[in-house]
Amino acid sequence: MSSKARWFAGTVAILAFVSVGAGRVTLAQTKEAPKAQTWAGKISDNHCGAKKHTMGKSDAECVTACVQNGEYVFVGDKDKVFTIANQKFEDLKKFAGQTVELTGTAEGDKITVTKIAAKK
Q1: pLDDT tier at 21 (50, 70, 90 boundaries)?
Q2: Where do the DSSP E strands lie in the chain?
Q3: Residue 18 shares a structural domain with residue 69
Q4: Domain CATH code at residue 107
Q5: Is the pLDDT of residue 20 over 90?
Q6: What b-and-e string marks burial along 88-119, b requiring 16 or more CB atoms within 10 Å of the CB?
Q7: How far is residue 71's CA from residue 47's CA, in Å, rounded to a whole number?
Q8: Are residues 17 and 70 in the same domain?
Q9: pTM as predicted
Q10: Do 74 and 17 share a domain, yes or no?
């Protein structure tokens, strides 16, 4: 293969690669970000979920004990259990076992929490 032919083949390959990459970026940019929502429910743990909390003297003690070897979850309407994506969110521990108004974005059964407030 001549040097001109190799140069042309290389240029075509680079252009094809760049075009495919640009197409992916465009698709990613057009995907709408999830909108923030607020739900009423309870901060629980993945061991108990929507069931009765049995460890400790209160729901808060049970959730706090169980998340040591598990993770926080949110129990919403009709006892639907959502995984919490950002387990290190600072107010999770404060509201463990309590009924709250939780604000965040949902993707499937996973919520990324942005705010937790005591239910009014």
Answers
A1: low
A2: 37-45, 72-75, 81-84, 99-107, 110-118
A3: no
A4: 2.40.50
A5: no
A6: ebeebeebbbbebebebebeeeebebeebeee
A7: 8
A8: no
A9: 0.71
A10: no
